[in-house]
Every structure is written in structure tokens, then in C-alpha cells.
Amino acid sequence: MKNNTIIIIVCFLIGIGMVSQLHSSEKISQKKISKHNVPDSTDMKYHAQALAALKDSSFVFNTHQIIFNNGISTSVSSVTNFISLNKNQVVVQIAFDTPYIGYNGLGGITVEGHISTVKMRTDKKGFTRYEFYANGTGISARVELTLHPTNNSATAIISPNFNSKQLNLSGSISPLNKAYIYKGTTL
User: Fold this and answer.
1) pLDDT tens string 80-123
2) What does the alpha-carbon distance between residue 116 and residue 133 come to, in Å, rounded to a whole number?
3) Is the dihedral of CA 71, 83, 79, 171 positive or negative?
4) CA-CA distances (angstroms) from residue 98 to 93, 95, 105?
5) Is the Cβ–Cβ distance between 93 and 76 less than 8 Å?
6) End-to-end distance of the chain based on CA atoms, in angstroms?
């Protein structure tokens, strides 16, 4: 009787060991699959649209987050915070959700200008960088956009020519005709 009990316990432990080994190998194969995860086709469609819009110089970069020089960041509305480019015309608008109306009537500032010296390049990892200079009333800056290789998310750096207070933005790029923005009063 004792031998049967010992055999049953040993078989039970072996069975538990086999099940746990099966689960761990299953987890490893799932990690390998997720590591080499192929981007969603919808994301790739948005990426292709954003890339075509950059090449055409007709796009909107909707800002979701603003990061200041001191590292503090704030989430903002992408409808009222954007960089819009239509061929050689640029509009940069920043609007904070405050009780103050600001220069543009939305709690921030809206500036317009012309662009020059456009450079576009894609690195080995697939990140596309789009750089230009913006000059106009209230703006004289270098703007660099970086498009993510698998979707339309991007970052932007606005570096003013007359001071070192650059502005880092996080958001997404979409074609000008598919973007939803609300433009305030310009300077």
C-alpha cells in the first residue's frame, strides 16, 4: 500500500513538472513571437500616409505632449497644439488649457511663416527626419520632426535662432487634408 502511494505521489510530481515545463516553453515561444512582432497593417497604413505627407510638404503634426527644457511635461489638446505645413507656409500653435486667453485667444501663441532649407532623410533603423527653418512674424527657428518607422507617431524639436529655450513635442503626423485642427489668432 505504501509503495502504491509513493508511486502515485512520484507520478503526480512528474506530471506537475511536465506541465510546468510545457508552460515555460510556451511562454518562451510567445516571447519570441512578440519580440519579432510585425506591426499592425493599420499602423503601417498611417505610417505610409505620414511619409507621403512629409515628402509632399503638406502635413500636420498634432501635439499630444509638450516637454520643456527643465524636463517638465504637460499633456495638451492635439486639436489646438500643432505644427502645420502647406508647401512653404508653416503655422506653429501652442495653446495651454488655462483661464488666460493668451495671444491667440486659446491660451497660447500662434505664429506663421515661410520655410526654407528642407532636409529629409531616413536612417538605418527606419526613423525619418524632416528638418526645416521657419521664419516669419514671431518665429525664427529650426524645426526637426522625427517619424517613427512603424506608425505615424513622431517627435518635434523647435529650436529658436535667438535663444536656447528649445521646445520638445510628442505627437503624430497626418496629411493636411485628413487633420483636424483649430487655429487661433496669429500674431
Assistant:
1) 999 999 999 999 999 988 888 888 899 899 999 999 999 999 99
2) 5
3) negative
4) 15, 9, 11
5) no
6) 94
